[in-house]
Write a structure and sequence with these properties.
Length: 140
């Protein structure tokens, strides 16, 4: 048996009303958004785990490299100790390391000075030019 509404022709099926369709659409959109957010959360959790492991391995590599550097410094001291007194070999290597640290510090300071102030000055100037252009255009 086919349902009919008071305004429909007999024999024609009655579909969902506009209100019902809007309600279904709203429910479906809400469900879709929730599902997409859950998927994004799961994906980000997986990526965060991989990033955490990667950062830990980078830290481990840095620590091993640090110890390797110490071994190479000791090797340089021992090699110089073959031709000089041990204290003089250690002093020479220490002075060379301090000089390298000083150069690295100066280069680093120069880089930091170039980065200050930490404001995107070119972008701010560009926005200011845009604002000025809009103001001039508005007064015409």
């Amino acid at each position: 048996m086919t349902q009919t509404s008071p305004t429909s022709q007999p024999g024609q099926p009655v579909g969902p009303t506009t209100g019902e369709l809007v309600s279904r659409l709203s429910e479906d959109m809400s469900r879709l958004i929730r599902d997409e957010l859950r998927l994004a959360q799961a994906e980000m959790t997986t990526k965060a785990k991989h990033a955490g492991i990667g950062v830990g391995l980078f830290g481990t590599a840095g620590l091993i490299a640090f110890y390797a550097g110490g071994v190479l410094i000791a090797t340089a001291i021992l090699a110089l100790a073959l031709v000089l007194d041990a204290w003089l070999a250690a002093l020479i290597v220490g002075v060379v390391l301090l000089a390298a640290a000083g150069v690295a510090g100066l280069v680093g300071k120069k880089q930091v000075d170039q980065a200050t102030p930490p404001v995107p000055t070119e972008a701010v100037e560009s926005v200011q030019r845009d604002i000025d252009a809009v103001k001039k255009g508005r007064h015409r």
